[in-house]
Amino acid sequence: MSALNQPTLGGVSVGRKVKDRAVQVLVYIAFLLALIPLVSVLWTVISKGAKRFDGTFFTHSLNGIGANDAGGGAYHAIIGTVEQVALASIIAIPIGVLTAVYLVEYGRDSRLAKVVSFFVDVMTGLPSIVAGLFILAFWLLLLGFSFSGFAGSLALSILMMPTVVRAAEEMLKLVPNDLREASYALGVPRWRTICFVVLPTAFTGIITGIMLAIARVMGETAPLLLTVFVTSAINNDPFNGPQMALPLFIFDQAGRPNDVAINRAWAAALTLIVLIMLLNLVARLIARLRKPVSR
Amino acid sequence: MAKRIEISGLNAYYGKTRAIEDISMTVEPRSVTAFIGPSGCGKSTLLRTLNRMHEVIPGARVEGKVALDDLNLYGPDIDPVAVRRAIGMVFQRPNPFPTMSIFDNVAAGLKLNGVRGRGKLGEIVERSLRGANLWNEVKDRLNRPGAGLSGGQQQRLCIARAIAVEPQVLLMDEPCSALDPISTLAIEDLIASLKDQYTIVIVTHNMQQAARVSDTTGFFNLAAQGQPGRLVEIDDTNKIFTNPTEKATEDYITGRFG
Amino acid sequence: MTSETLGQGGTDALSGRGRKLGTGRLGDRLFGISARGSGILLLLIIAAIAVFLIAKAVPALKADKANFLTSQLWNPDGAEPRFGILQLAFGTLLSSFLALIIATPVAIGIALFIAFYSPRRLASGLGYVVDLLAAVPSVVYGLWGLQFFVPKMAHVANFLHDDFGWIPLFGGDSVGGQSMLTVAVVLAIMILPIISSISREVFLQVPQANVEAAQALGATRWEVIRMAVLPFGRSGMISASMLGLGRALGETIAVAMVLSSSAGISLRLLRPGGNTFAANIANTFGMAGNTGRGALIASGLVLFVITLVVNMAARAIVARRKEFV
Questions:
Q1: Is the pLDDT assigned to residue C263 strictly greater than 60?
Q2: Fewer CB atoms inside 10 Å of the end CB: C or N, chain B?
Q3: Nearest to C82 by CA among C55, C57, C63
């Protein structure tokens, strides 16, 4: 059949095809624009952090290291971060999970539950520095305690709580009601139902949420700045005296105008990112591997 | 405007699974052809291959030929978007665009194709709404949202939207299954009147509807559970329902399975 | 566990002897109290935050000789305390809104890419990659910003100043890398993931029926998005960007590290300097005296109120549309 005899469909105008193509290109560019900073940050942190990623860095503090000296490490900062985050978790997790239990299991439609839920939302938007200011005003200035790792933990726990509440709440809501009803029908009292039937079912999801909350709080600097202060020595006691923390260490070293400090800052940044990524990965692995209640 | 469709050796796949196998048939212009058969036998899949909507699903593909008056719709130079503009479709659940007014819904396809000017659009919108038997009910509220109508009205709105661009073929995928009997009757009357201008292919699981509405009926069936769907028999509607050739057709018509 | 309640308590209840159901009732009461108590504790914490911050802020506000809202000075520990938040508010709002303007189109583009343009199998993986941007802590963004990005932006700033200096935003006498523009870009990078992931969720909720209707009319992919997706997702996208704005407003450390804090209000985006609420607190807290701390706390309260309003508005928009979905 010659082209002249071929019937044709109405075509799609060139203008429309061009617009379609243009949007496609723009959208691809947008994605690249997201990748560029991500790759740049990760690459810079890895390549510059590797310089001081050595044994000294992980086993020594900055005690006795002069302003321009090389060497020294972040041991005191790592200890500090681990202790502060652990304490914050110990405070935030029970309160957060119990509040979620209240919202889902006990208070469903009550006024109190609505008010609590509203204020959990308020807390989610609390700027981290304001949390630090609060602990400064309350714990340090009013009650008269001095800078300590624990004060930092208090601030961090305030930041963790709303995240834990929301994550636990979502997971508890996903537990099918049939499970609860079956348990009640057997005569099991409510608290046992919650503790031994509902919570275990939602356990994986709650753990994932908690780990993600911990990963976020690990990198918080602002609240610690106001409550933990800065020190160069190792302090294993979070309840007494200033402690260091990884994000604070980075902030402090980054502000000094010499190379040895900057190198230490990069190495600490690499350490922090590795820890956070590990937590993220483990959280996602747990979520994938054990999925009794899935989305 | 209305055209003939010739399907030859059509196979459609979802990923590796073959959904319909070796379909060959002809749909005459200005007629209504019904596809009937038990659930899952591929009627809707076949319908969607006619306007190249099947391949929109990730992993889905089509082999074979669908010719619209000698033009192979699956030819190498054919743009699927152009095919979909030339062949209209009405879906099982009415789906007017919720954020658009009634007028804008009907005009949606027109605007895509570059028709401009409130006057020209208004003309075509009125003609389409009249053609869909909806004009009198909505002429005073053309600027209200399309989603505020009843189910039957929404479906007629979707029909108006489809015929506004003057397609050559109109495909209808169980258009009445989500509607009440009165609306169903209204739509069936509408189909009878549209027949003069369009080639219509309708998928229906309601045999009586097929008998009422169509000139030609094709009966589809699965060879066995897990097998692809096949065209068992296609013939004048009268013949299919009174004196079918294949035993499977007769079994289905008389309700021995379904 | 069940036997003790069925056997003992159950039959007792049936026989009407009215004995307590053993550990059941007590446990329920205690547990219920502790659950409720946690909720109330949370409320108390928030109340305490408000109360104590206000309590500490008021003395400083009383001592302020200048107008807290309109003064640009920040000298709370001087002989005559004079401080005001005008410069801080200006810097905070300018940097955050700029970040929003930069981030929102890119984030929506990313969300469209992942939802409609990328290969199906990669979609969730790509979403995870974009969310990685959110996992990087602000102090690391600050370090990267200061060490890597600022020098690069200094070049860009010079270029913009030389070639486009006639635009008032890019004019001015001083040009440098530690400017509002740089801060805005860094903030934009930080809020990209939140805007993008919420938008993505909204796009995935578009009713498939409307998408099919648009496709069946013979629409190109962009036209389908324009007709069926964007109108549906409009309120979700607005809410997403407002949540991003809230995040940018409260960002402290990255701004403190990247911006070279200085006085004055200026719309010259390339000028090094400026200040925000949070950065001011971080930078001056160390040397602040009593009034100084009170002043910082007062500024923190203002920041809190601003972010609260933005976040609440964002949630209100989402809540309203959830009724329709």
A1: yes
A2: N
A3: C63
